């Protein structure tokens, strides 16, 4: 039985660019950086940036990392757009919350998530 998520590994093409995105744009704390592997702390969840070995193909679909902004969703979208982040859709409202999809510097799917207001 799984008792929680230990870490999330994200494939990257350019380690420096990816570290810059997750650290400088998203504001996560960099805890380790090496040419082939770097780690960031996402509020207690470890995100590992794993260098592609040149043979891995980019693929649509797969895992998506959701981030909860400190501020409201619209403010965070504005902040990230100002930092050059490419959003792949608009904010969508659901009974379970609100989301907006975007890409990291390596083309991986990410999203912002805000829980429903009670």
UniProtKB/TrEMBL annotation:
GO terms for molecular function: lyase activity; methylmalonyl-CoA epimerase activity. Residues 4-115 form the VOC domain. It is an enzyme of class 5 (isomerase). Keywords: Isomerase, Lyase. Its EC number is 5.1.99.1. InterPro entries: Anthracycline_SecMetBiosynth, Glyas_Bleomycin-R_OHBP_Dase, Glyas_Fos-R_dOase_dom, VOC_core. This is Lactoylglutathione lyase family protein.
């Amino acid at each position: 039985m799984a008792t929680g998520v230990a870490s999330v590994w994200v494939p990257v093409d350019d380690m420096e660019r990816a570290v810059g995105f997750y650290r400088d744009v998203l504001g996560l704390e960099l805890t380790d950086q090496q040419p082939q592997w770097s780690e960031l702390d996402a509020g207690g969840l470890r995100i590992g940036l794993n260098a592609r070995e040149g043979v891995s193909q980019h693929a649509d679909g797969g895992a998506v990392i959701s981030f909860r902004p400190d501020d409201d969703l619209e403010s965070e979208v504005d902040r990230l757009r100002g930092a050059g982040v490419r959003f792949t859709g608009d904010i969508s409202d659901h009974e379970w919350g609100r989301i907006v999809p975007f890409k990291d510097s390596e083309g991986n799917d990410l999203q912002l998530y805000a829980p429903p207001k009670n």
